[in-house]
Fold each of these.
Amino acid sequence: MIRRMTLLLLLLMTPGAQGVEIGPAKQADDPWAKYDVLTTSNAAKEDRFEKVVEKELGEYTPVFIGNSGLKHIWSVRHLTVEKQPRGAVVLQSGDTLVIDIDTPEDRRYLRHAIHHEFYHLIEFNLAGDFYFRDPKWMVMNPPDFKYGEGGRFDQDSATDPGNIVHPLAGFVDQYATSGLEEDKAEIFACLMVPEEAGEIEQWSRADRVLEAKVKYMRGFVEWWSKDTGPMRELFLAVVHDDEPAVEKLLAAEPALATREAWGGWKPMHWAAAHASAGALSALAKRVGANDVDDQGWTALHIAAVIGDETTCRQLLGLGANVGARDKSGKTAGDYAKLMHHDAIAALLLKY
């Protein structure tokens, strides 16, 4: 069995809660989730729950936990979202993970659920959106594949997260096909549960799509497990389109504008992915509109994959080269066609 830390290229640090508050919920309900606060009669089950959570949380470095934005893990009972029973969920504050102590501990479900929901929290805090449409992840899938309507519409037992069966190429379970955000969270969770990590490692040997997703997620964890310093500040400023903050950071350290993060991400590409118009303008002043990542993508490739016509037009105005080809020989227009963004493909043909 391949150990999860070997698979994720992490070093196991000081065990325990890593500075995160773990215990019963401190408030009743949330605009997003409904639940019951624990009573003293739940003490024994709460103690077992805390031990499981602390063990799972201890698999991350303190730096990773700090970068994630996680502050609290609360235990509750009768957890629901939109009247659907849930084992775990992230509160709208973005810093609190709530887990139902009645979540079954069999078939690895509780451990898997902790890591799955933790990834949603991470995505919200580092990408600014639970439903970030990651263009680098999107193109890993077969061209004609389409996700479902999201995890909240796919809650029956046959498609439960953690029901790892590798139903089709690139996916660890049926639930992962419900939405891009669920696909990423399932890969992340599987890598953190040793039994599942071994399974997807084996499947990846013959499944190139799954192999690419695992590699991308490993790089994500490895990068955010290090002290990223001002790069974290820059990425967050870009996400929130804080143009003055972007300019201030670049003035202090100009090299940040071309520095690569996980998956080859550069600030210019991150700005295009988030339609951050002010940040794009500030970065273009430093690096132009045609800086490339490790795949040879320009920011225009990113906007074309997502299908963001407004950002495409802004990049064209900043001097983006529509003829630029990535390492596979594709232009931004090629990706627009591939992703069925016909209006953008037509727009790029005019330049």
Note: Residues 60 and 184 are 18 Å apart (CA to CA).
Amino acid sequence: MSPPRSTRPDGQTSLGAKGRDASRDGAPLVGTDDNGAVRAGISDDSVTQIRNIGPAQAEALARAGITTATELREIGANDAYRRLLRTGHRPHFIMFYVLHMALQGRPWNDCKGEEKANLRRQFDAICQESHGDVAPSGVERILNEIGTGLRR
């Protein structure tokens, strides 16, 4: 009997949690094929093997050229986030600190206090160097501070 399959919103089919194309948590493994297209089931060193990195973040990382957990660990969260921004990814503080927590093997919501404030300063500096963004004001600033990101 073959493992269950599910169809993702992008039309790709992936195997269920016990299939060869699924990570430990059942999320599809993501990588790029020889043509550079983002595909499920490519690598057994998928970034989804890292705690807190799910399929959506894995696809964003793959678009930035980061397709393996090994590579993500080698370049680190800050450089990975710089690559994401260069692909046109919208800056989002939560995604930034989730990368940091993931690479430390910690729950994504474990970032608090001075550590979170320090990561916020790093995030702002990376956004400034990448986009020349100026700090938002008013409601935009408050939304960004609480981690919901800027309004779209």
Note: Confidence is low (pLDDT under 50) at residues 1-29.
Amino acid sequence: QGGFEALAKTIGQLVKPEPPSGVMAKMKKGLELAKIASFAPKYVKKGACQQVVKTGDEINLFDLPILKCWPHDGDPRKVGYPVDTPVGGGEGRFITLGGIYTIHPDDADKPAGEPRQSRNVGMYRAQLIDKNHTAMHWHMHHDGARHWRAWKKIGKPMPLAIVLGGESVLPYAATAPLPLGISELLFAGFLAGKGIDLVQCKTIDMQVPANAEIVLEGFVSTEAGMVGYDPRTDGEVGPGAVFEGPFGDHTGFYSLPDRYPLFEVTGGDLATRLRTHIPCPKISARCSEILPRFAANPATTRFPRSCCSFRPAISPSLHGFIFRKEKNPANSCVSSWTGISSSTANLSEGYHSFT
């Protein structure tokens, strides 16, 4: 109740609480803290995300209807690199709305029910490379990259899970600019009004939302070199790494390729529901960047359909789709996040857009 303003006020009170004065105020504050404790994640033994578990050669990331949004995605030769530049692979398809779950090595090997203080849920893009590898693109200041550097320091592969779907609050919690020390899962529980159920991964030391649609478990190579690589002058990309990109970003420009570590999806850890819905955003330029062009020349300005049909309260830069895999992989039912329209998409076309 109260909409976004009430939600913002409540968050502000949690982040910067005022010390209570008087007995009644202290009792009220105690009740508030008790309620906050109920928002913490809860551990369960079974999860809907593990109704179907694929192993070994059964794993094929290309079976997932992951989008290629723009023509130059994944091909560095299209943005000025020589024709012999190695291409990352994956047909320019990127996972862009997956929650990336990582922990610091200091939190490794703890019992399943014990809190992982370092656990981070980020949202980084992952370019498909082959049937069981993706690139893992994160900026150096992100917590996921900080965890990766800690694992690299001790010389061990980094456990990581890509989580698609789950409670609707999870994507926002993963991208929210939370204060240091505030857990994304605790914040998600606060938004949902109850704790997020977590289940133990099948093959790595990680817990993930039990209600997720798909979980990709595996390890990120720590052999990879750092960013700032140029294939024209720096030789081979090196072990455990790939030249990732370019990627048509929400800025309206392609972000240029660079070296990023490889994520290997290991055996026994492509877990899904029996009927799987995959959240897939179509990345496009922000409406705020297009409106000035429209004001200057309304006759020739082309609006992305994301601006026309997506609710700006969530994000004007994403056009959300949900792909439901059916027996015939050539066709999937598509519905917009707004829930106001639906259509049928031919996956060979990459994506289907509508208003």
Note: Confidence is low (pLDDT under 50) at residues 287-291, 298-355.
